[in-house]
Structure formats: C-alpha cells, structure tokens
Amino acid sequence: MNRHDTRLCALTFDLDDTLWDNQGVMARAEQLHYAWLDEQLAAWLAAHGEAPRHFAEAVPVTRYQAHRRHLAKQHPLRRGDFTWIRERALVELLEEFGLSRASAWLWASLTMTRFHALRLEVSPYPEAEPLLEALTRDYRLGAITNGNLAFHRLALSRHFEVIIAAGEMPAPKPDARPFLATLSRLGATPARALHVGDSWQEDILPAIRLGMRAAWIAPHAPADTPMPRGAYRLEHVRELPDLLEWMERK
Fold first, then answer.
1. CA 56, CA 61: separation in Å to the nearest integer?
2. Which of 127, 90, 125, 133 is nearest to 111 (CA)?
3. pTM for this entry
4. Regarding predicted confidence, which is higher, 209 or 52?
C-alpha cells in the first residue's frame, strides 16, 4: 500500500465531550424539562377544573429515569434512540398518572420539544469553530453521535458534510454501521480516515477495528496509557492540528 492509499482525506468526530463539555448541559436539561412538565401540566389540569396535583410528586424524576432504563432493556434495538425512549417513558408514566392516551402523547411531545431546546444550550470549546473551519480546507468532515442533540440547529454543524445520529439508525456506537455509513458518504476508506472522540469503548475501539486511525480525547488518562497502533491520546481537541501535522510528516 503506497502513501497515497493511506493519506488522510476524512475526519469523523464524536460531539458530546469532544467538541464541548456536555455534563452540565445534560444535568440541566434533565432537571428543567421535567420541572417544566410538572408546572405546565399542573396549570393545565387546574384550568380544566381538576384538583391541583403535581406530576413530579407522583412520579419523581428518579422513577422516570428508571423507566427509561427498563424500556432500553425491553427494546434493545432502540436502546440508543434516546428521544424515542424518553418520549415513550413519558407517555406511559403520564397515562399511569391519569391522562388519556391522546393527552399523554401531547404532553410528552411538548416536553420533548422543551428538552431538545435545553439540550441545544451547549457551549462549544472556543477552539472548535476556528479548528473546524481550518480542517475543512484539507479534509472532509463527518459527525457520528450517540446523543439526541439536534446538531443541525447549531452553527457549528455547517462544517460537517455528514451528520449521523447513530442511535436513530438504530445502531449506536460501538456498532460499526454508523462509521461505515459516514465513511461511505464521505467517499473515504477506513485507511484514509481518522475518528476523534472521548469514549474508548464507543469511539476509539470501533474505529481501530475498522482500520481507521483514532484520536482519543482523554485528559484524565495517564500519559503512559498503552495505545494500539493507529490510536493517539490527546488532552483536548485543540491538540488535533499538531497531531495531523505530525502524521503528515511520517
């Protein structure tokens, strides 16, 4: 295989905790969309002549979370489709609360709209925008995420030719299919692509197994962590250009 066959032409990226810190965003979205449902539903019930009662008191958020886990086990093919799981859990719990099926679906849909709005309140790392802008000059970019972020609604998405929500295929990472689908749409072979992500199990291992190269965003991993051939550890995505430059010189 000559150098032309292995020179990188495509980069694929995970999103959450790769291009932004997602922990606080998810915690806030989880709390606030459920509080929104509790408040709005109580007002709606009161407006329709029912005695005041609160959904979150009858069904604590921990019960909602447990029911999501139950649905993921009950429907393994949908385990990565987090929007489907959340909405289905809300419908079933709202029916249990006493709403009709139609009303339960209405309120579940409205609550998920609120969740997705909160989910979009991410703050990309300051380096992300100029980094991606520069990379598009030399590489074709794709995004592969297990999350249910409506990424196309963020300005950062314009840098990506392909965006795949793997859980909705449904084939969440570490399944090889979202990687292969992204590479196919980018017109790249695995040998000419590098994947960037923060999860060893969901990003790095599947990429390496396919014959891709991989950049592992792992700020807390020991510097001497053993790495398989073709995998490189970075503390932050800002270090990616230096890695690519080094790889080009090899």
1. 7
2. 90
3. 0.89
4. 209
